[in-house]
Amino acid sequence: MQGLSFTMTRVIFFNLLLVISLIDSPVLSSTPQIVSSVALNTTCSSSSQIEMSMSSLRNETRMILQSLFPSDEWTEIVNFDMANSSHNCPSPWTTVTWPSRLCTASSCNDSLVINVPTTYSQIRGQIIGSVIGLCDAFTQFFNSNPSIEEGYLDGVSITHGHPRQHVWSFGAGHAGRCPCDNSDASIARHPPSFVGDDYFCDGLYNGLLWDGQNCTSACCTFNSPPWFNVTLPTSTSNDIEVRICIDEPLEMENVYIKKMILQIK
Prior knowledge:
By secondary structure, the protein is of the alpha+beta class.
């Protein structure tokens, strides 16, 4: 808001509010001729085209408002807990019922893509998961130098945009495969450079992962799970993508999500 006088800022603010109130008005919604001449200045002939234009104008107006008057409140974009029988796995993930109600994916390509309704520069949240089999965290035996576009871990990856930009990683590693648990890089490979220190790693076989409980002391304290909080270099409105990845067949290992909360601001 640098360079804008207080009076000019107020004028912009109240005019934008007026536009939003006009767009959301039931009169405008039910009268295509008024929408066309007053709000959109368009010659759309079908109601679906008019509604698409109205939706676009609403979003653009709100984004301008958010840039002028940023909110200190977090916006929740995902919240489910499979312990709640009324919650279901978001598509394209599937629900399994053993050993409990959990979400899983058939491959790393079956990602959850979250369309974000606003600009944001911070992401925080938590993912609580579990594992079956012998997952290896960041030690990928079939690809020694994976990129962010590939399945670079056994666990869960959160990225935004295309090409993908890293947000947070959740490594699942058994028997000392987590780098926070083992300094021997030949056994516990460190995460790729694009991950840096923005990760959790846990290897509890008969329990929950990334909850900060019942893990080795180093992994329980590294980055203080279960909550992560990331500030991006710049604001963005990119979609956020969550991938469940493993590097071996499903009959040998698998990673599941029990609970996920993601918030932005």
